[in-house]
Amino acid sequence: MFTDQPILRIPGPTPIPPSVRQAMSQPMIGHRTQETTELLTQVRPKLKPVFGTDQEVVILTGSGTAGLEAAVVNTVKPGEDVLVIVTGAFGDRFAKICDAYQINTQRFDVKWGEAVNPEDIAAYLKKNTSIKAVFATHCETSTGILNPIKELAKVVHDNSDALFIVDGVSSIGGVETKMDEWNIDLLVTGSQKALMLPPGLTFLAASDRAWKVMENNGNSRFYLNLQKYRDSQQKNAVPYTPALTLMFGLEEALKLIEEEDLQHIFNRHHLLRDMTRAAFKAHDIPLLTVDEFASPTVTAIRPTDFNPEELRKTIKSEFNLDVAGGQKQLKEKIFRIGHMGYCTPADILETVSMVEIGLRKIGKEIELGAGVRAAQEIYLK
Ligand SMILES: *Cc1c(COP(=O)(O)O)cnc(C)c1O
């Protein structure tokens, strides 16, 4: 079959809209020219509502992990106490970055597949008063849960002076996030998830409080020094050569987001989540997470009577359909369907129907179409 028609339903990278692809084929420009000034003038105000902030959203070249590392190295110093809420592989990554900088990292581990309970964090902070920053993951991509960030922000500020730092890589642009209103101090995202771009850009926004801490932080850092980016961007300039090609795409992606309207985008992601979950429930195939904590951007399925790797291999070879496997302790135990960014209800119907064929092919007795029908019912509601 046509090998140029991959169907990418993993939680990042995600498919790129044709107009974004086209925007990225523009001729190169100089990064210290009027063209770059104009590009930044277009892009900067449009990024703010996506973060729910009036603050500058700085753009760095690097994957999401570079953004996480920037969040750590700009805010805390070696030997300082931080709390990292670990609900899966990405919380674990935040903790490992802190460890790498000799920060005194205290982990709050939550069972994978569950969201953290804000009351537990309140209790922890009451007992441990030296915590300088609390790190959390909004959507934990490895399990498909959404942590209650708004409530967490409140308990962090009610019970400590710590900065509240959030990994929003797989949520920003797909899940409502009100950085200023909720009092998030530092919010990070990446380009290749709900923002409908290729990998390679990371974005960060900080509260006034966080900027003050960063300005007075004597930690060594150079490329990841966020003040450099802020100070340049506020003059519609860049400190170093940015990934201009990706920024051409960003300008177009932000246009698409504005045209669709953020509220509509958030509702669409809820619909995609509900359609996906209904499909597997109809087949009595267990989901890893309960409805209450389910992320609108990715769904993890934990089968009991078939091998998810066998299913993944089958749908890949039959349809060139990619879904993700499990990470670390969930390796070979789950599979994950990404439904963020450039993804529509039609894509979910297509995906479910292909997965049903895959299930039959690996010998699971299911009623063909039952999952599709359940998803259709959700759509019609
Ligand atoms: C994808 C992702 C990242 C970033 O990973 P990179 O591979 O460095 O882009 C970070 N956090 C979460 C929650 C993610 O989903």
Automatic annotation (TrEMBL):
Q: Name one GO molecular function term.
A: transaminase activity
* SUPFAM superfamilies documented for this protein: PLP-dependent transferases
Keyword set, alphabetical order: Aminotransferase, Pyridoxal phosphate, Transferase
Q: Which domain of life is it from?
A: Bacteria
Q: What region holds the Aminotransferase class V domain?
A: 28-329
The record's annotation in Pfam families points to: Aminotran_5
- Cofactor(s), names only, from the UniProt record: pyridoxal 5'-phosphate
Q: Give the protein family.
A: Belongs to the class-V pyridoxal-phosphate-dependent aminotransferase family.
Question: How is this protein named in the record?
Answer: Pyridoxal-phosphate-dependent aminotransferase family protein
Give the organism the record lists.
Answer: Virgibacillus kekensis
